[in-house]
Design goal:
alpha/beta, 8 strands, 8-stranded mixed β-sheet, about 325 residues
Length: about 325
């Protein structure tokens, strides 16, 4: 009997974890009775009652498992690490707040049975803030045009991944993984299933401006050269324009020495413009350097504090 793993990352989701676990188990037992299953939560150091609830759920059902991180390791590392810990023939990743509809699970599995090793959900619309959805659409279109590899619009990471692809992820050994880009760049032939994203069932989102900016910069520095190339081009053009303006001003001053007051305004404007351009692109280059630095340090994806209902690791000596 094949086994399906459902992975749910969570952080401060005390109002949702019990409801999502019940909904997932009901869906698996009703629609997919021919499969064995496990439901794995990976908690990113929640500060509310999420962990006590998960402990109770694990005590009540041995097929519910939990991994507790020692601290918050970010929105990308934690689910990626969780995918490497599951034991099923495939893993379905979804969020705890019901914004990835539970009824997508049978659709994912059906496509998997058809031979697809990757089946992903694509948001065609959303009940979230329409301004945010529009901004996300603009971001996806921009990164798709700038990227050196294919990028998938409105793909949040939710989907089904075959064991073969999980082994690909394991061999990557990337300390700063960006799953959305990896699926597009290194993944197998995939099937995309459209869905409308509902509102959060309860609680509030943890995606503030900094988290969204971090996600955007990770995709930019991992899959585009545009920042560095733009710095080179803009720097070269600015340098050329500055030299032309300097020569023109010098020539005019030499020809009309008494009648051409150069003044300080052009100099100040030029200095402020070039200074702002330099600061902007120093920051852009710094983002690339930060990405390189994180990869060179080779820090682990996650440090576990505790895991529940997992079988003990086999002794290597055996």
């Amino acid at each position: 009997m094949k086994k399906i793993s459902v992975l749910i990352p969570c952080y401060n989701e005390e109002e949702n974890v019990e409801a999502i676990s019940q909904a997932v188990l009901e869906t698996l037992e009703r629609d997919l009775p021919r499969y064995d299953y496990e439901l794995v939560f990976i908690d990113n150091d929640s500060r509310d009652n999420t962990r006590p609830i998960l402990r109770r759920l694990c005590q009540e059902n041995p097929k519910i498992k939990a991994i507790f991180n020692a601290r918050n390791f970010g929105q990308f590392n934690s689910p990626y690490y969780g995918m490497l810990q599951v034991t099923g023939d495939c893993v379905i990743e979804m969020v705890a707040d019901f914004q990835d509809p539970v009824d997508m699970i049978p659709k994912y599995v059906k496509a998997w049975e058809e031979g697809y090793k990757i089946v992903i959900g694509i948001k065609t619309s959303s009940r979230e803030n329409p301004v945010m959805y529009w901004l996300r659409s603009c971001y996806y279109k921009l990164i798709k045009k700038l990227s050196d590899v294919e990028q998938i619009e409105h793909f949040t990471g939710s989907g089904l991944y075959d064991r073969d692809f999980i082994e690909v992820l394991r061999r990557l050994d990337d300390p700063t993984p960006f799953l959305r880009g990896i699926v597009a760049e290194l993944g197998y032939k995939r099937k995309e299933i459209p869905y409308e994203q509902p509102k959060r069932r309860a609680g509030k989102t943890h995606n503030n401006f900094y988290r969204l900016y971090d996600a955007a910069m990770l995709s930019v520095t991992s899959y585009t050269k545009v920042g560095l190339r733009l710095a080179t081009f803009v720097g070269g053009v600015s340098c050329f324009v500055s030299m032309v303006v300097a020569v023109v001003y010098l020539t005019m001053k030499l020809i009309w020495w008494d009648r051409f007051p150069a003044g300080m305004a052009p100099m100040l404007i030029g200095m402020l413009f070039l200074g702002s351009v330099q600061i902007f692109f120093i920051g852009m280059v710094g983002e690339y350097i930060l990405s390189i630095n994180q990869r060179i340090m080779r820090r682990p994806l996650v440090i576990e504090e505790e895991r529940l209902n997992f079988e003990p690791a086999a002794d290597p000596a055996e």
